[in-house]
Amino acid sequence: MPLRNLGRTYGRWWDEAPSRNELFMPQSCGGIISQDFIDLEFEQAVYPFRVCVYETYNPGSVVRIWAEDSKEHWELLWEGEPQCVGHTSRIFSPDIKSTNFPTKVLRLEFSHAHLDYYTELDAVLLVGTKEAIYRADDQPSSVGKLTSQIMQLNIHTIPPQVDIPSSISSFLDHQLPRLLKVTEDLTVQTSDLIEDLPYSNFNCLPISRDEGADTRVGLADLPLDPRSTPSGGCEPPDHIVFPLSFSQLLLDADSRASSMASLQPGDEAIVKIFGYLDLLSLCKCSQVNRQFHRLAADSLLYTELNLKVYWYCTTAKALSFLTPRCKYLQKLDLSWCGNILSILPNDFIRFIDDCGGLLTHIRLNSCKFANNASIIKIGEKCKSLKELSLGNCLEINEAGFWGVAELKCLERLDLYHTLITLEPLKALIVGSSHLVHINLGSCVQVSSMDEIAQALALHCRDLVSVDFWKTYSLTPVGVRSLSMCSKLQEVDFGWCLGVGAPGNSLHALAKGCPRIKKLFLAALRGVGDRDLEPFMDFCPNMEQIDLVGVRSITSTVCMQFLTRFPRLRLLDVSFCDQILDSEVSYWQFFFPHVSIKRSFQHEDRLPQQGLMNGS
Predict the structure, then answer these.
(1) Which of helix, strand or coil describes residue 597?
(2) Which part of the chain is the F-box/LRR-repeat protein 15-like leucin rich repeat domain (predicted)?
């Protein structure tokens, strides 16, 4: 890795900003939600037994490590909660799962929500052998099936960061008494319930469960035909009487007898319950019986589809399986899905042909199958589209973007780090009079961002957020034009080096956009106190200010921010040469409700954020 790698986000600040994204099908997201990833390719494939991540600044955001085999299938090597480590550096080397294939491609997933500041990586080391030193099918016969599964999951070892004495002490002092109390209460309630029930009620069919089963299976690999069984034997009955569950203990004792006859809910109730299930659980419910198979395929359960969380197993086969269920699909997130072979452009085109007529939201961030033909099909089929997110889609060129230039209903447009050029982008904006959020960060192929800013000012008067991060062709002319968007609440001009000497453009922006809450001006070294003072006069709702590397500002304007912005929650003055550390410490003490950031790095350089793949 020749460059340091930094993310563009940290903490909850981006989730609290006006441009925050809503999750589609949030019940599928699970406990650990990642925001970014990086793929790393090494020179030689090895059987991995160690991965070392050199975290030089704000470590603790790595939550998953994946390995890819020669057929582009992914296997999870390690997963864990994000850690709060602090402002330090470390070599993170978790115990990883062994594989029976060599790999030279790793994917690291990151969760930044808990971080106090940007994370930074220097390198990733992959250690392995050319020949396999362990295979699951080569185990000695003395190793049982359960032991084998424990070893494969790497739960027979304790990670080095775990404090064993403290963990044992905490368990004995706090968790064990509560566990014993709950067990005692449940025993008493179960005894009472058994006494109240006739013996015949225990004549129920057992439900088979494989406790060691791997939940990370392909969506389309689940046997969804209700006539199929794991053993290939006779088909299941039309309904199964489930054994008593702990939820039934909550029934009032007086009503137990009368309620036994009505434990079979109607279809509407089952569909309502299914609406709270994640996608994988819905697939598994299809295996229970004919009734569940029919109800789990109800199209009303698939108006939103979030396949981003299943990126590792989403294939053309999975899309084909989901197609008949998605007659009413409105919101689709395929971000991160589709390696070179797992989903081809034609697979996606067929899916859009069959299911895209009602789509209002599409997210295809970092999708390799998103090419010109795919985007042209979206423009043809999805006329009611309100959101289009194509961040990091580098297979689309000018011809493809012209294919969506006729969309008229767009409210959110994310083109972060794409190859869009001036003319199709201008056409998109002119036709999108309802545009509310637009992300043009790192769109370096646009020859004149000033023309884009002027088009936004003329045609998108409802604009709330705009991101011009690292768009070097933006100048004070474009900034001044945006002052006509009076509803603007969020602007990011970070690293827009053409705005280095802003003139009166920031004054015009503050006066014309009094609702601004978030102002990011990273690395605009020509900005001084005088340029920022108008925001105190005209923008009383300011909440987040990023002045990283704005070296001409002084502590005077920062103190005014802290005293005159009652809603201010974030102030970043890292790498601001005119501000002393002692002054920052003073502010942090007297304004504890404001998160004041001050990078302590000693190198005389600014961090180059944004090398990760976005969400």
Answers:
(1) strand
(2) 325-448
